[in-house]
Design brief:
Strand content: 15-25%
Keywords: Membrane, Transmembrane, Transmembrane helix
Distance between the termini: 13 Å
Helix content: 40-55%
Radius of gyration: 15 Å
Shape: elongated
C-alpha cells in the first residue's frame, strides 16, 4: 500500500472516533439542533484528532504524526 494512502487511512481512523463521540455528546447534552450539531463535532474533531502527513525525507517517503497531546512530531513506522 502506498504511504499516501496509509496516511489518509490513518487520518480517517484518528478523526472518526472523535467525530462520533463529540457528535453524540453534543446531540445529547446541548441545546444545539440541525446543522450545528455536526458542524460543532467536525470542528472539535479537527482540533483533537492527530494529523498524519507523508514527507520525502532523505530520499524516501516517511509518515509523520503531529498531535495536540504529544510533544513534537513523531515518525510512524
Amino acid at each position: 500500500m502506498n504511504k499516501k494512502v496509509k496516511s489518509i487511512l490513518y487520518n480517517l481512523a484518528g478523526y472518526a472516533p472523535f467525530f462520533i463521540i463529540v457528535y453524540l455528546l453534543t446531540a445529547q447534552y446541548t441545546e444545539l439542533t440541525g446543522i450545528m450539531v455536526p458542524v460543532t463535532a467536525a470542528v472539535v474533531a479537527t482540533i483533537l484528532a492527530p494529523k498524519f502527513q507523508v514527507v520525502k525525507f532523505q530520499g524516501e517517503d516517511k509518515i509523520f504524526m503531529k498531535w495536540l497531546f504529544t510533544k513534537g512530531v513523531k515518525e510512524v513506522k
